[in-house]
Amino acid sequence: MTSYKEHIDHFGTLTAQKMPVSQRVFKWMVLTSLIFVALFVTFVPWVQTAQGRGQVIALNPQDRVQNVTALVPGRIEEWFVQDGQRVEEGEAIVQLADNDPQLLDRLRAERMQITARIAAAESALETAKLDVTRDRALFDEGLGARREYELARIQVAEKEATLAEAMAELNRIDINLSRQSMQLVTAPRDGVIQRIRGGDKATLVSQGDVLATFAPIEAERVVELYIDGRDVSLIKPGFPVRLEFEGWPAIQFSGWPSVAQGIFDGQVRSIDLASSPNGLFRVLVVEHPDKPAWPKEPFVRLGATVRGWVLMEEVSVAFELWRQLNDFPLQPVTSNSPEAENGTNAP
């Protein structure tokens, strides 16, 4: 039985042919690449992340965008501000006027009248009390009738009721005058008038109508991220978060946080117990105390869009590819993982 080499030797032209250098180089490049990829996905670590989108908000509700409303009904008399104007606490925003221009004059006149009634009622009460004292002394000495003494006491009670009624009327007038003094609407704190929604002198407003939109400045900011319910159950307060702010140049590698540029650090503050109307769960993120501070205004404003990655367990690239292909959830963070020890799991 002849060997393969003896048969192939009959084909001299075939044996004289050699593989081109380019093909041999390509073969070794493919083989080296396969070995490199196998080693890469096996030994290179990958940080799993729970991704979400959200926006920058103010932590304190008083620091959020709020409406400036009319405290009393009336009409707009004069505006003291314009859109985008910065105001200080107590600075006038708009002057309202009552629909009845003579209302304040009538209230002041009515107050003077009630004040006079109170003075008369107090004087009458003092006289009635003197009559009671005198009738009591006469009754005790047997010089006066008991009926006169009792009538004097009834007069004192009637005078006290009259005085109390006048005092109540005075309080009502003072309340009305105080409400009319609220016709000057002022800024509740330092901030910016974002948008004026009122009109001119022909515009009538009711109590509670929105006159302008006001945004406080120097608010303590947090980020609210909306994360899928499949991953949110694995997130706990204190977990590190990487944030990419809208308009801030950044390069993000979610699996290798240390390689990313223009990304800022935060940590989970709280997780909502119930889902939001969009079906996702809200996660509040605050600045990391040991990391660089977030960009300030005007670079990152309230309401700016944010992308976030909550850093989870560290796995191999091969495991992460397998998880993604099978659509499996994230790995739960173990007690001996880096983020459980020092609050970060960046490689």
From TrEMBL:
InterPro entries xrefs: MdtA-like_HH, MFP
The organism's place on the tree of life at top rank: Bacteria
Keywords: Coiled coil, Membrane, Transmembrane, Transmembrane helix
Residue ranges occupied by any Multidrug resistance protein MdtA-like alpha-helical hairpin domain in the UniProt entry: 112-177
Transmembrane segments: 28-47
Keyword presence, Transmembrane: yes
Family annotation (Pfam families): HH_MFP_RND
Residue ranges the record marks as coiled coil: 149-176
Name used for this protein in its record: HlyD family efflux transporter periplasmic adaptor subunit
Species: Alterisphingorhabdus coralli
